[in-house]
Amino acid sequence: MTDDTRSTALAALVDRYCEAWSLASADERAAALRDVWADGATYTDPGTDALDAGGLLAYIAQVHARYPGAKVVRTSVVDVHHDVARFAWQLVRADGSTLPEGLDVVDLDMGALRIRRIVGFFGPLGRT
Amino acid sequence: MTDDTRSTALAALVDRYCEAWSLASADERAAALRDVWADGATYTDPGTDALDAGGLLAYIAQVHARYPGAKVVRTSVVDVHHDVARFAWQLVRADGSTLPEGLDVVDLDMGALRIRRIVGFFGPLGRT
Question: Which residue of A has its CA nearest to B106?
Fold first, then answer.
């Protein structure tokens, strides 16, 4: 795979993952997650720890209950090296207002092009 | 542990880790790394992958050969949740000039207060 091909494939992977957060239908969110999530993959952010696919979908459903019509949009390139990547994202509410940007750090299965783990951080990183 | 105590302890852990990059003596760098590095911990950044403690110390020695007198300085708070953290850092050369800021994402052994894994990224995250 060339660097450009890999970069395009990874951006598509992350954008499909973002659809698992953004689609209105729970079934469609589950289908999006199935396309990107490796067996045994986990999700951790400040509000939750080590969810599996089912746990993550339930967590996303809570976000949709709180912010009906919200979408998660990637706001950076996917910066990758070796089998790890980072990207920034923002939750956009139905009225277009946004929450502070988050950062996801991803462990990848580069062979299968799937996500093995996501660790997320919320908001800007405080300065010393 | 209170949040404040934990926060102070983690900042001290990361600062001791930064000493493993900054001290002039290879022996002192090794001693600093021994204080913070868990058995089996690994280090990955855009220039290298999955180094163990010995490999990391050799990699740091290469940085010192290239930038004599350089130090690595933490430039953000240590933002932690669950057993993961992120912090920003900068390499400061002997003449005070700096390289672009890096970001390290850390898997922690919170019980032993040691680093289990670091994944580093270099420079600002490109925007879409």
Answer: A119
Q: Which of B85, B36, B82 is nearest to B57 (CA)?
A: B36
Q: Which residues of A touch B81 (CB under 8 A)?
A: 44-46, 121
Which residues of chain A have a CB within 8 Å of the CB of B103? 86, 125
For the packed helices B53-66 and B26-36, what is the interaxial angle rounded to 10 degrees? 140
| pLDDT for residue A5 is more than 70 | yes
The Cα–Cα gap between A3 and A8 comes to 9
List the single residue in B46, B82, B103 with the smallest CB-CB distance to A49. Answer: B82
- Closest chain B residue to A123, measured at CA: B79
Mean pLDDT of A46-71: 97
Nearest to A106 by CA among A96, A116, A98, A94: A116
Q: What is this structure's pTM?
A: 0.96
Q: How far apart are CA B52 and CA B33, in angstroms?
A: 11
Report, as an integer, the average pLDDT of A76-104: 97
Q: Do the chains contact at B77 and A128, CB–CB below 8 Å?
A: yes
pLDDT, tens digit, 9 for 90 and up, residues A103-123: 999 999 999 999 999 999 999
**How big, in percent rounded to 5, are the helix, strand and coil portions of chain B?**
35, 40, 25
* Whole-number Å distance between alpha carbons of B25 and B27: 5
Collect all residues of chain B within an 8 Å Cβ-Cβ radius of residue A82: 44, 46, 49-50
